[in-house]
């Protein structure tokens, strides 16, 4: 199974899109797995998926705060739906 995490939607209202396929050539299924929702935290950007030696999965990403720079966020990844959702 091929899995990817992709930022999309731009900085102010962006989201994290997950894609998966049984082949690197597709076809791919996709799903939004982390989004701003009703919070004041703008979309997730420039992130990475971290798998620890303890079997935990985390999503590290940045929030753009304009003149203040970037705020780092660390969200646990939940696989209970078969997709890597970061609803931490």
Write the layout of secondary structure elements.
Layout: E1 2-8, E2 15-21, E3 29-35, E4 45-51, E5 57-64, E6 70-76
Antiparallel strand pairs: 1-2, 2-3, 4-5, 5-6
In short:
With 88 residues, this protein is an all-beta fold. It has no helices and six strands.
Describe the structure.
Helices cover 0% and strands 49% of the residues. It is globular, with a radius of gyration of 13 Å. The chain has 88 residues and is mostly beta strands. It is built from no helices and six strands. The strands form two sheets. Strands 1-2-3 form a three-stranded antiparallel β-sheet, with no helix packed on it. It has a three-stranded antiparallel β-sheet with strand order 4-5-6, with no helix packed on it.
What topology, given as strand order, has the largest sheet? 1-2-3
Mean pLDDT value: 81
> Rg, please?
13 Å
Percent of sequence in beta strands: over 45%
Tell me the distance between the termini.
Answer: 25 Å
Question: Count of DSSP helices?
Answer: 0
The total count of strands amounts to 6
Query: What structural class results from the helix and strand content?
Result: mainly beta
Query: What string, H for helix and E for strand, traces the elements in order?
Result: EEEEEE
Largest sheet: 3 strands, antiparallel
Helix content: under 10%
Shape: globular
User: Which stretches are low in confidence, meaning pLDDT under 50 for 5 or more residues running?
Assistant: none
